[in-house]
Design goal:
It is a single chain. This protein is of the alpha+beta class. 59% of the residues lie in helices and 13% in strands. It contains twelve helices and 15 strands. It has helices at 7-32, 36-64, 75-96, 103-126, 138-162, 169-192, 215-260, 270-281, 302-309, 311-326, 355-366, 395-402, and strands at residues 4-5, 65-66, 72-73, 130-131, 135-136, 194-195, 201-202, 208-209, 292-299, 334-339, 342-348, 370-372, 375-377, 381-388, 407-409. A hairpin with a 2-residue loop joins strand 12 and strand 13. Helix 2 packs antiparallel against helix 7. The termini are far apart.
Length: 427
């Protein structure tokens, strides 16, 4: 059977192929920049759209071949052609979105994708269900399969290379035009490998047919690809905006930690402790602040420890002490590093814990040896306490009062005065 080609539909099939190629170039990069649920969303969505476009290329290309008969397609075999196109699109997008493209991945992907393209084309021909059946030129079948594999290799290599290029719009357009032409060459070589018997007719039971399978199908797929690319661009801009906002938040948090937290122990520093203490002193709804305590603890022999153990090991000791003590704090309490050798703790009164009991618990914790790097260290600490409002009603007054050390704990502890005093003194 002789046939002719409709030039408009030939151009339409090439436009679909070029649009699909451009979509693969763009969407592969979008998938590569995503992760988690977003990566799976773009992989599945792009596979659906790109696979449908590859299937439409096949249908439009077959419709472009005008034969002296009414062309129609079997629904099940057309679905097989569509599914094979989806498999091709999914494999293409998966390979080009990886971080690296090895020679083995390129070769294996080219063979599988080429086989998928051939299946898409030939299952579309089978869907005609012609009587008499189709004869094949095996040489041209082999040539079409080779072209399909070569086209697949070029597609994978180009997509992977171009997606990593900054400002790659001109390169993407040029590559999509070339790859689109190669995809069309694959299809039309497959079509030239078949021989239709004279007076062949499509099966009467074919359910798909009509003018919509030509130019309208091409336009619909080009529009769908454009919509997905626009959505991809909008998503990329939104992702960039979220990344910028996250970077700004991280920078603000970094500056905040530098300003309010100790770099060695991770505890609040003097500035944050003073602000917290000041807020504790502010009356709420006209009610005076509730009593609270301040405990100051100073490491004795700090300089000697550095000379003996080194700054790094002393820092590790202090971090260990901070972690151990933080585990015993109640809600509302605050432990801070006031200086290189001093810690300060704000203790709030609870219904089941008095300030005296809280201060005694802090003192007991510092009285214990410190386990660090499979070694036990017996550190000596000086401890002082103050209480609001008995020892002052300002931050400085309370801290200065607490820094008047009243006793020593840990190691070879000894009273700092002639007689030990209670946790909050006689006051």
């Amino acid at each position: 059977m002789n046939g002719t080609y409709d030039l408009a539909l030939l151009i339409a099939s090439w436009c679909v192929a070029a649009s699909a190629s451009y979509a693969a170039l763009s969407l592969g990069g979008r998938i590569a920049q995503s992760n988690g649920e977003r990566e799976r969303f773009w992989l599945c969505g792009s596979t659906l759209v790109l696979g449908t476009a590859l299937w439409a290329l096949n249908i439009v290309g077959m419709t472009a071949f005008k034969m002296p008969m009414t062309v129609s397609f079997d629904l099940a075999l057309t679905a097989l052609s569509w599914l094979s196109a989806l498999a091709v699109a999914g494999l293409v997008l998966y390979v080009i979105s990886r971080r690296r493209l090895s020679a083995a991945s390129l070769a294996g992907g080219a063979v599988l994708i080429g086989a998928g393209l051939s299946l898409t084309h030939y299952s579309g021909l089978w869907a005609l269900r012609l009587t008499p059946g189709i004869d094949y030129d095996l040489v041209l079948v082999g040539v079409s399969a080779a072209i399909a594999a070569m086209t697949s290799a070029v597609l994978l290599f180009t997509c992977f290379s171009v997606r990593q290029m900054p400002g790659a719009m001109p390169a993407r357009i040029a590559a999509s035009l070339v790859i689109g032409a190669m995809l069309c060459a694959t299809h039309y070589t497959s079509l030239s490998a078949v021989r239709f018997a004279p007076h062949a007719l499509c099966a009467a039971g074919n359910l798909l047919g009509g003018a919509w399978m030509g130019l309208p199908l091409a336009l619909i797929n080009i529009g769908l690809l454009g919509a997905v690319l626009l959505l991809s661009k909008m998503d990329a801009l939104a992702t960039q905006e979220r990344s910028r906002a996250e970077m700004q938040r991280n920078e603000v948090e970094r500056v905040r930690r530098m300003a309010y937290y100790d770099a060695v122990t991770g505890l609040p520093n003097r500035s944050l402790f003073n602000e917290t203490l000041l807020r504790q002193l502010i009356s709420v709804n006209g009610q005076p602040p509730r009593p609270f305590g301040v405990v100051y603890v100073e490491l004795r022999g700090y300089r000697a420890l550095i000379e003996k153990l080194g700054q790094d090991r002393v820092n590790l000791l202090l971090r260990t002490v901070a972690e151990q003590l933080s585990q015993n704090l109640r809600e509302g309490d605050l432990l801070a590093r006031l200086s290189h050798d001093g810690f300060v703790c704000l203790l709030r009164q609870h219904g089941d814990r008095s300030l005296e009991t809280a201060a005694a618990q802090v003192s007991a914790r510092f009285n214990l040896p410190v386990q660090c790097e499979s070694q036990t260290f017996k550190l000596v600490w000086g401890i002082g306490c103050s209480r609001f409002p008995d020892n002052g009603n300002s931050t400085q007054a309370l801290i200065r009062s607490a820094m008047k050390l009243q006793q020593e704990v840990g190691g070879e502890a000894r009273p700092a005065r002639r007689e030990a005093v209670s946790a909050f003194g006689a006051a």
